[in-house]
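hi! just following up on the protien thing from before. the input was this:
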Amino acid sequence: MIQENKIKALLQLLDDPNDEVYKHVSHNILKQGKDIIPELEKAWETSLNEVLQERIENLIQEIQFSSTQNNLRSWKENGAINILEGAFLIAKYQYPDLKFGSILESFDKLKQDAWLEINNNLTALEKTRVINHIIYQIHGFSGNSSNFFAPQNSYINHVFESKKGNPLALGIIYMALAQDLNIPIYGVSMPRNFILAYIDEYNIQEPFEDEILFYINPYNKGTVLGKKEIDYFLKQQKLEPKKSYYNPCSNIEIIKKLILNLIYSYEKLGYPDKVSDMKKLYDILKV
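and the predicted 3d structure came back as:
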């Protein structure tokens, strides 16, 4: 527990005009971590000093960003198992008060509806049709083509709220739902796109190339694709085919791609600070 007297003493020195004093004080505040944020917010609300308020805002942002970095590092080190959690941690950057419980609440509504319809007697294509029906028709998710490069399309909480997103965010929701229902659907990181692969559940072994039954386009209402469509897309984009464009990738690779989307979005919008922060998050996931 942080000592109240120590906090008060630090906060009283926070608007000191001496740079060395401010550096020392801010360093000590940052060391306290997330626990000091409520006290900083209280100090901000009761102050009319603009310099102090700005310094408090900067410190809160720095503490929150440091927390996000640490959590992302832990997610990676613990095996990056839950793809929704990875997407949630990236959303926490823009929405620091976001709780994972609210993401799970939205996700559970999808899961409950899908669970009622899915059974083991269905074929792979039939299971895919059920998931498509739940996500795109019952819950109304769709691709955001009118504002494709908006950062909100990459933030999972916003996608759940607006029911609109980019291929990657929609793909993350789709594969998370499928895997929660024990359906072997995984992400495939293609250049300038993101699709899903349905793996033969009776023959799952790496490399996956011979075990892929078909592909799914999460951005186009779950349209089923064959290898020929992937070949055609790569030819259109003037890209040499690579195995990685056809085979499932890791959750870490998917979240890295999500971060790259946001870097591109923020570069287009002219937010160099956010680009810099996103690059720091990307570096955490570098192998």
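The chain has two domains: 4-77, 83-285.
The chain has a mean pLDDT of 89.
cheers
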